[in-house]
Amino acid sequence: MNSDKPLLSVAMIVKDEEDEIGACLDNVMLFADEVCVVDTGSKDNTPKIAREKGARVIEIEWRDDFSYARNKSLELCNGKWIFIIDADERISKEDGAKLRFLAEQDEKKAYRIWTRNYVFNTNRSDFVWKKEEDEWNIGYSGWYTSAKVRLFPNDDRIRFTGYVHETVAESVLSIGMTIENLNDVVVHHYPERKPEERQREKREKYLLLGLKKVKDHPDNPQYLAELAVQYVELGRLIEGIEFYRRALLINPHCGEWWAELGAILLALKQYNEAKECLKLAVGFNNSLVHAWRHLAIAYVITQEWDKVFQPMEKVLELQPDNSEALEILGFLYLSIGEKEKAKDYLVKALKFNPSNPRILDALKKYFNQ
């Protein structure tokens, strides 16, 4: 860590992260000049490990407010720029160098960065199946993505807001600063490495803070949708539906929320209502791959075979290597006797999923391959 050039600070808040904090600090110290850690009440060796690794550490009392803790971490930072990361997140050496390069350019803007959240749970509407192992995705079924502002100038007007799902975006925009999407940098996040009990405790904490947030701002559709997510993650789907509907009453043009609502209704076997929600989703945002996929699946379930083609072909337009879409279209064309089209789709599907027994059997049975 280069202590004589305070260009880039990393800010973190932690609690009981002794299994993660050491590796995380080793990771970010490859590109950061300092790491500032706020501990919110660890009962393990997290603060001790962080200090031994060279981080600046303070310990504070938890106040049921993630923004308060985050802002304490910003106050510790001496660098001209600040990058936000959590203990269970990592970033590649190459992407760390990109962050440092941007800090050196010193343009007065903030950067929104994509997070790839690796999980075993494949039930999310926006889940992406992995295609092969890589150094970041070992053992997980795949991931879902999210984005947040993580890199910004060290300006004491830039502060986090929100008890939970905290963000600096509002304060960045309020001072006239722009936010740029940084699409070639990825933060790798491992939320399911913790024991299930701790994962559930975290979800329940987020739910309570989300309820508090909505109580203070009952007409904020973003906060209502965030609360819907918390209910769904706890398996409380009916309450999730309620809060998505409340959010959509205020902002009926958000395709992502219609897509999530449609996915929940599909899981609850309310197929007709699910289809209507999913059609609204792609109407407002026709790039929502998961919404097109769920719409096609809904038509498969209700055996409306002629309606499956268009949404599934849209999935392929957006994701040409989607083996599931290729397979489904292959079998659909096979069912209506268009064998050449069927063969084309199945051969392509096999390229991306070479051990799929259904495809192998079909190619052998119908095409002697």
What does this structure look like?
The chain folds into 2 domains: 8-193, Spore Coat Polysaccharide Biosynthesis Protein SpsA, Chain A (Alpha-Beta Complex); 196-367, Tetratricopeptide repeat domain (Serine Threonine Protein Phosphatase 5, Tetratricopeptide repeat), CATH 1.25.40. It is 49% helix and 17% strand. The protein has 15 helices and 9 strands. The model has no long low-confidence stretch (mean pLDDT 93).
Which helices and strands occur, and which strands form pairs?
Elements: E1 8-14, H1 21-28, E2 34-39, H2 46-52, E3 56-59, H3 66-76, E4 81-84, E5 89-91, H4 93-105, E6 109-119, E7 128-129, E8 142-153, H5 169-174, E9 178-189, H6 196-216, H7 221-233, H8 237-250, H9 255-267, H10 271-284, H11 289-301, H12 309-318, H13 323-335, H14 339-352, H15 357-367
Parallel strand pairs: 1-2, 1-4, 2-3, 6-9
Antiparallel strand pairs: 4-8, 5-9, 6-8, 7-8
Helix pairs in contact: 6-7, 7-8, 8-9, 9-10, 9-11, 10-11, 11-12, 12-13, 13-14, 14-15
